Amino acid sequence: MVSIWNFDAKIAFQDIIGATECFDEKYCIGIGGYGSVFRAELEGGNVYAIKLLHSVDDSIDEKGFHAEIQVLTKVRHRCIVKLHGYCSHSKCKFLIYDLIEKGSLASNLQEEQLAKELDWSKRSTILKDVAQALSYLHYDWDVPIIHRDIKSSNILLDLDFKAYVSDFGMAKNLKHTCSSWSTIFAGTCGYIAPELSSTMMFTEKCDVYSFGVVAMEVVMGKHPGDLLLPFFCRTEQHTELMDILDKRIAAPTRDEEKDIILLVLVAFACLQICPKARPTMQQVYQALTSRSRTTDIQKPLHEVKLQDLHDLCAIIRNI
């Protein structure tokens, strides 16, 4: 077993096997694309999330396992889940992470009582955290890192509702040509950039599109569905923004109304069909956090239509 952070690898292996009773299903807290996640409380009360490979003989699972190790041994960011160590035995492969207590953004949005805890301020902050993490991956490395599977179930929340990007099993280093071909279809239906269905060529703008889907999901409280269709194909052009907001939480304050308008503007910019028309994640993060930000929309929220936001979304690249 290999330790990455200050972690006693020799003790940990037996402790993890004991704490999970040989990975008994009663300790399973989630199932991902290539591994199941178990809760393990070790001596001293420290609690970790252990991702166990579904199969040590499956080449795709193996690639996901090594992709996570390759990325997470390099990155250090407060909004990216921390990898403490891993075991790469021929009969047992697992990864050791911090346990992020509140689970995924998806599960929090799906459960009505949990969704009510996610007020507009928290939702805005969650999206800023994710945007910051993606900007870091895309721009703070000599060779950018593309996540390739951004979705609400891969964003984890702690007890303070701070967001962490997780599950790097499909992550790739982007070559200096700024794009890369993939022979394996990566991503999750409903979050995948439309160009991947025809070209199989991924760029950082694929992550940008997926972020746009998540942003709309956070605003609406559910997957945006038909709102992802090209705008001229939709019947919602004249729909008021108020009509698509998550009704399970209190109506926004005036300041929160401005934040919501900005979030949807950013989301629409990210969801542009043409990759070149989408902003970068740096531009997205700057737009969401700039003190001098403006949306050029002076109407109160109840008068804003989706058409208004679609017409203005290009300004995000200039904020």
Automatic annotation (TrEMBL):
<dbReference type="Pfam" id="PF00069">
    <property type="entry name" value="Pkinase"/>
</dbReference>
<keyword id="KW-0597">Phosphoprotein</keyword>
<dbReference type="InterPro" id="IPR017441">
    <property type="entry name" value="Protein_kinase_ATP_BS"/>
</dbReference>
<keyword id="KW-0433">Leucine-rich repeat</keyword>
<keyword id="KW-0675">Receptor</keyword>
<dbReference type="InterPro" id="IPR051420">
    <property type="entry name" value="Ser_Thr_Kinases_DiverseReg"/>
</dbReference>
<keyword id="KW-0732">Signal</keyword>
<dbReference type="GO" id="GO:0005524">
    <property type="term" value="F:ATP binding"/>
</dbReference>
<comment type="similarity">
    <text>Belongs to the protein kinase superfamily.</text>
</comment>
<feature type="binding site">
    <location>
        <position position="51"/>
    </location>
    <ligand>
        <name>ATP</name>
    </ligand>
</feature>
<keyword id="KW-0723">Serine/threonine-protein kinase</keyword>
<dbReference type="InterPro" id="IPR000719">
    <property type="entry name" value="Prot_kinase_dom"/>
</dbReference>
<protein>
    <recommendedName>
        <fullName>non-specific serine/threonine protein kinase</fullName>
        <ecNumber>2.7.11.1</ecNumber>
    </recommendedName>
</protein>
<keyword id="KW-0812">Transmembrane</keyword>
<keyword id="KW-0808">Transferase</keyword>
<keyword id="KW-0325">Glycoprotein</keyword>
<dbReference type="GO" id="GO:0004674">
    <property type="term" value="F:protein serine/threonine kinase activity"/>
</dbReference>
<dbReference type="InterPro" id="IPR008271">
    <property type="entry name" value="Ser/Thr_kinase_AS"/>
</dbReference>
<keyword id="KW-0677">Repeat</keyword>
<keyword id="KW-0418">Kinase</keyword>
<keyword id="KW-0472">Membrane</keyword>
<dbReference type="GO" id="GO:0016020">
    <property type="term" value="C:membrane"/>
</dbReference>
<keyword id="KW-0067">ATP-binding</keyword>
<dbReference type="InterPro" id="IPR011009">
    <property type="entry name" value="Kinase-like_dom_sf"/>
</dbReference>
<keyword id="KW-1133">Transmembrane helix</keyword>
<feature type="domain" description="Protein kinase">
    <location>
        <begin position="23"/>
        <end position="288"/>
    </location>
</feature>
<keyword id="KW-0547">Nucleotide-binding</keyword>
